[in-house]
Amino acid sequence: MGLSVIGSIFNITGIAINRYCYICHSLKYNKLYSVKNSVCYVILIWTLTFVAIVPNFFVGSLQYDARIYSCTFSQSVSSTYTIAVVFFHFMLPITIVTFCYLKIWILVFQVRRRVKPDYKPKLKPHDFRNFITMFVVFVLFAICWAPLNFIGLVVAISPETIISKIPEWLFISSYYMAYFNSCLNAIIYGLLNQNFQREYKRILRTICTRKVFFQDSSNDAPDRIKSKSSPCSHKTI
Asked: CA torsion angle for 9, 14, 41, 24 (degrees, to 10)?
């Protein structure tokens, strides 16, 4: 669970940096993101993800929470570690991603308003749609995960006094809201990405076609049984 959560935000950050370099620094992009460098970036992201979950085993922050019937990160075990988690696993990545997408939007608006008529960014319609898709993924990720991280930050200030004042329904709602974010990605890609739209339609057509085929086959079964001649009818008397 820790790998999936931390890996998600680190990958979103890596994609945002990639889009920023691709659009705002297109002349340097091929050098920055050569095949070798790209492989190194992917390895770096997952190395940082593995390193990020290691302290949990020494701090003892992974505990069973009866409110959500699950073993999860306990925000009240260590104030210092909780603040570090919120900062390095949420606030810092969100700040980096916000900066990257803000710079991209500024450049897009400048080009469309002809503020920079001589500048031609490396942004094709297909690339722009992909950028919009990842931007929406980021926005929804930030919205869904912000409440849980905000609660963790508040709890870290004074765990003994504040944790008892947080309503149970608020924590449960923020927890499931955070993990519900994973369900939204399939919907986002289906709505905004043409490749996913085509595949979704193809899958639905396949399912419906097979369903009709099996229904027709089952309806024809009695007729086939009736029309099938009995072995006795072929015997010579």
From this structure: -170
Q: How many angstroms separate the CA atoms of 135 and 133, rounded? A: 5
Backbone dihedral angles phi then psi of residue 229, each to the nearest 5 degrees:
-75, 150
Instruction: Report the DSSP beta bridge partners of residue 72.
Output: 63
pLDDT score, position 235: 47
3-state secondary structure string across 37-80: HHHHHHHHHHHHHHHHHCHHHHHCCEEEECCCCEEEECCCCCHH
Inter-residue contact 189 to 134 (CB < 8 Å)? no
Residue 104: phi and psi, rounded to 5, are: -65, -45
Output the six-digit token pair for 164.
Answer: 């008892």
Q: Which two tokens stand for residue 32?
A: 């920055």
Report yes or no on whether pTM surpasses 0.85: no
Mean pLDDT of the chain: 82
Burial class of residue 104 (count of CB atoms within 10 Å of its CB; 0-12, 13-18, 19+): buried
pLDDT digits (tens, 9 = 90+) for 93-109: 999 999 999 998 888 77
pLDDT digits 0-9 by tens, 187-224: 888 888 888 888 888 988 888 887 665 665 555 555 55
Q: What is the pLDDT of residue 14?
A: 94
Calpha distance 87→81 (Å, rounded): 10
Tell me how far apart the alpha carbons of residues 171 and 164 are, in angstroms, rounded to a whole number: 11
Tokens found for residue 10:
């680190």
Give residue 52's Cα distance to chain centre.
19
